[in-house]
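User: structure tokens for this one?
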Amino acid sequence: MESYSIGVDLGGTNLRIAAYTRANNLLDTILLPTRLEAGREAVAEDLSSAVETLERRFSSQYKLIGVGVGTPGPLELPAGILHHLPNLPGWDGFELKAHLEARLKRAVIVESDANLAALAEYVLGRGKTLGVDSLCMLTLGTGVGNGIILEGKIWDGAHGMAGEAGHATIYPDGPACTCDSNGCLEMYASATAVVRVANERAASGEAPRLVQPEGAPKWTARALAHAADAGNADAAKVYTDAGRALGIGLAALVNTLNLPLYVVGGGLVQAWHLMQATIFEELIHRSYVYRLTAPGSKVAKGHPKGATQLLPAELGPDAGLLGACILPFLELERR
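Assistant:
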């Protein structure tokens, strides 16, 4: 029988659970609300029930090789314990892996959602397109996630908490972050951040073109991007400033990691064209490693690894779910 896996993307708003084969990609997907108000055990029960539904649906045709679960971090590995999750209140210290394994009566692989998005981009997206074995990915959504693939493997770090570049300090005197620091990348280059900045500037009078008439819909990241595209200079500046912060963060990553590929994904990447100029302006200014290895450089032309590439992600919103589905296959190969 052909093998299949079940992948889970555990988010603060939705649960997505999918069955997957390497030949046919996603066979079916279940979408559920994340019932945070009901408590973490209730959410875990919803997740487990959906896994069992897919197992009943496909196990007569395929052989189930494993279940992969992606969750927001920080995440302690290999134990699969969640810590200090701003978007999952009340989940601090939850032993997610042990809880799911006891409920499902099978092994479950738990990994950070950002790492799984990076894994999917490596296997099916930009990594596959460019033929590289290592990449670093930033996901710009409610927060800023970060996943790292080194020589074909997820880099978890010593405790499973590697890849927290979203909490790297960009401006030390910046606003307080949910991680208890100040001025983190997440406070400038996430979908949440651009909306907050727009509202603050409108309220202060700094951005009069962002002041909404009474009764008008509230700003969203998408609405701001549409306004910028329509010529709203104040909306455009919100995005160019987000790109500047992102460029500063990426410059530090390039100088530190010297990988062949950096990928930016998540919902905010739809506004890549609004951020691109200031991203590269800061990257070129702040990373001598990038200047030496950028496309067209002497080093890049003569090196077997080629140039350092920075590109928007290919896979879109399914990246984390696809990574969760791919993970059991990689674990089987490793064993």
